[in-house]
Design goal:
The protein is an alpha/beta fold and about 325 residues long. The protein contains 15 helices and five strands. It is about 55% helix and about 5% strand. A five-stranded parallel beta sheet has the order 2-1-3-4-5, sandwiched between helices. Strand 1, helix 10 and strand 2 form a beta-alpha-beta unit.
């Protein structure tokens, strides 16, 4: 569905809740932006507060592009003119500052000059914000559809490669522990083979932060063509993966150039996986509780007794 463009006067933008959300909207739009528009987005995301104070010509110069491109960028993120973007960025920066505490500058990446304590603060700050923003942006109705599909599935196949594979393994293990038939495929050939065996009554879940990983998109498309219910977990709701899915669950993680593929995106994905799993588990509460107790007990015998020490000899 196309985003509705606001027709309000610029002075009203700072009171619009969507204005505070402008940074999330910019990040969501990134895959669809032209290269010159993306340079504008990068300049804005690098320092929203400073960008809010720039004239359109100054922002264009910073992004090595033209004022006309800046205007196209504004329209691409649902704003009618440049003053509206400036007000929205100011509102976003003010909202961030209102959170309080000793926080890093909004949008800043790790730099060569950062001390170790700066690195710790920036990483933890970004991970906390990713969880907060993913919670705020999650479509609960869409999550409910995913819970319904997974809870009633004959089998669930999960596709993910690279960092997303770890998240997929977590989902598969959780579902398996409560007695659901679930598989994880991290190799595209195995994933395509598995997808070829799916059909109505089955669920395919594909995980990709960018939503453009072919090894995740192609198996999901194949599963959907055979009638399986398809679920995408991605950071970009307008990505290829989202377009291939019946149900789309989104995160809102801020990856920066130095932290591309960082833990922040996986933490956000794992949080959504937890929400999905708990929603499914709750549908058969007593059966699930029994299964969790049994699987927990099965590994307890592998734990070392208290006070026991490993011999120091070879």
């Amino acid at each position: 569905m196309a985003r509705q463009v606001s027709r309000r006067a610029p002075a009203e933008a700072s009171h619009d809740p969507a204005a505070v959300d402008v940074l999330k909207r910019i990040r969501t739009a990134l895959p669809d932006l032209a290269p010159s528009e993306r340079r504008v987005a990068d300049a804005v995301l690098a320092d929203p507060a400073q960008a809010a104070g720039l004239a359109i010509s100054a922002l264009a110069e910073r992004a090595t592009t033209s004022a006309a491109t800046v205007m196209r960028f504004c329209r691409a993120v649902g704003l009618t003119h440049y003053p509206q973007l400036r007000l929205a960025l100011a509102a976003a920066a003010a909202h961030e500052n209102a959170l309080g505490g000793d926080r890093p500058a909004l949008g800043t990446d790790i730099s060569a000059e950062d001390q170790l304590d700066d690195i710790v603060r920036k990483i933890i700050y970004n991970e906390v914000r990713a969880l907060e923003e993913s919670c705020a942006g999650l479509d609960v109705a869409e999550l409910g559809r995913a819970v319904d599909a997974v809870a009633g599935a004959r089998r669930i196949d999960v596709f993910g490669v690279g960092a997303s594979a770890f998240v997929g393994q977590d989902l598969q293990q959780k579902l398996h522990r409560i007695g659901l038939i679930a598989f994880i495929w991290t190799d595209v050939h195995a994933a395509l083979t598995a997808a070829a065996l799916l059909g109505p009554g089955d669920v395919a879940v594909a995980i990709s932060h960018s939503g453009e990983t072919a090894d995740a998109v192609e198996p999901l498309e194949a599963a959907g063509e055979l009638g399986a219910t398809t679920v995408a977990l991605t950071n970009f709701p307008r990505s290829s993966l989202a377009a291939a899915a019946d149900i789309v669950l989104t995160t809102c993680a801020r990856e920066t150039p130095f932290r591309s593929g960082a833990t922040v995106s996986r933490i956000a994905q794992l949080a959504i996986v937890d929400c999905l799993f708990v929603g499914v588990a709750q549908r058969s509460f007593d059966t699930t509780a029994t299964a969790l107790q049994r699987t927990y007990g099965a590994v307890q015998r592998r734990k070392r007794p208290a006070g026991r020490r490993t011999p120091s000899g070879g």
